Structure to design on (315 residues):
């Protein structure tokens, strides 16, 4: 059994950690590993990853049912589409889905059937933070994908990620979270075995510069299952050192802001806000809004009608 008191500090850690990882990765998203200078990393502007995570947080706070959540998230996606701040290298699947929503397509059908970019996973953390049972985390995560990403692997990876956040919040060790995630993925899609094998080999060989790359590694993170496993790899290997983990997560050839956002979220959920350096919070864009959303997610969780009906989770 693994239960611990869920504090506001833990939820703030996840939300602010995600934003810090995103902001550190955003300026270097399209740079190769060799061209990223770690000492120059600076968290200021957030990108679409955090913007859409905030959209999901608002929808989770507003909704009481899974379908209500889908409806509210669709509204937030259209608001994001029209926002003047939507100029942070947004992903094509998210833009296309939001445009289809705006034109009147139902949210359950707006997402591309072939879309399995990392856009659905990067924003999902608030679902694992606010809901109090794994089955509802899985259901709401699927609904969070439908407006923009309907490829089965995007949905599966997003469900696995929100569950990983749920378990990190409850204090589970990262190694256990990785193992549970592999079982979850393997049981539902045997085609993922290849990348799961590469994930295991990367952990045994333990060379981050190879693991976090496309050549026989876990990948570049542009697609959902790669981003998921890259983040779990960094969490498992560097999970007790927030600063180093984030720097490793963003110093990659591939999707730096998304892998940074995922690593920041899961380490923040595990360790709380105190693990995040002040130097990275000082100039963070929308810092006050992020704190407010974290506080409201905490209140939303505490008021969850299912809270006291949920049996303790057993690994
Ligand atoms: Mg981004």
């Amino acid at each position: 059994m693994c239960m611990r008191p869920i504090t506001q500090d833990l939820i703030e850690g996840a939300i602010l950690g995600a934003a810090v990882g995103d902001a550190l990765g955003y300026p270097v998203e399209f740079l190769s590993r060799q061209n990223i200078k770690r000492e120059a990393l600076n968290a200021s502007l957030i990108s679409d990853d955090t913007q859409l995570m905030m959209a999901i947080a608002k929808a989770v706070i507003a909704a009481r049912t899974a379908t209500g959540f889908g409806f509210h998230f669709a509204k937030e996606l259209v608001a994001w589409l029209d926002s003047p701040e939507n100029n942070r290298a947004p992903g094509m699947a998210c833009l296309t889905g939001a445009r289809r929503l705006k034109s009147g397509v139902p949210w359950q059908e707006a997402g591309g059937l072939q879309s399995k970019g990392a856009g659905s996973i990067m924003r999902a953390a608030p679902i694992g933070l606010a809901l109090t049972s794994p089955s509802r985390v899985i259901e709401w995560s699927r609904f969070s994908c439908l407006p923009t990403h309907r490829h089965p692997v995007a949905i599966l990876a997003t469900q696995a990620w929100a569950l990983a956040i749920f378990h990190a919040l409850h204090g589970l060790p990262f190694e256990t979270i990785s193992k549970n995630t592999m079982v979850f993925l393997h049981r539902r899609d045997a085609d993922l075995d290849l990348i799961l094998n590469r994930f295991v080999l990367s952990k045994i060989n333990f060379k981050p510069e190879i693991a976090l790359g496309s050549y026989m590694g876990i990948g570049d993170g542009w697609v959902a299952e790669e981003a998921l496993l890259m983040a779990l790899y960094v969490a498992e290997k560097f999970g007790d050192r927030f600063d180093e983990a984030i720097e490793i997560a963003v110093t990659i050839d591939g999707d730096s802001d998304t892998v940074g956002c995922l690593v920041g979220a899961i380490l923040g959920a595990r360790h709380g806000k105190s693990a995040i350096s002040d130097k990275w919070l000082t100039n963070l864009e929308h810092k006050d809004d992020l704190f407010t959303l974290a506080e409201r997610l905490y209140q939303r969780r505490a008021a969850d009608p299912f809270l006291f009906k949920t049996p303790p989770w057993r690994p």
Remarks:
- Residues 117 and 223 are 4 Å apart (CA to CA).
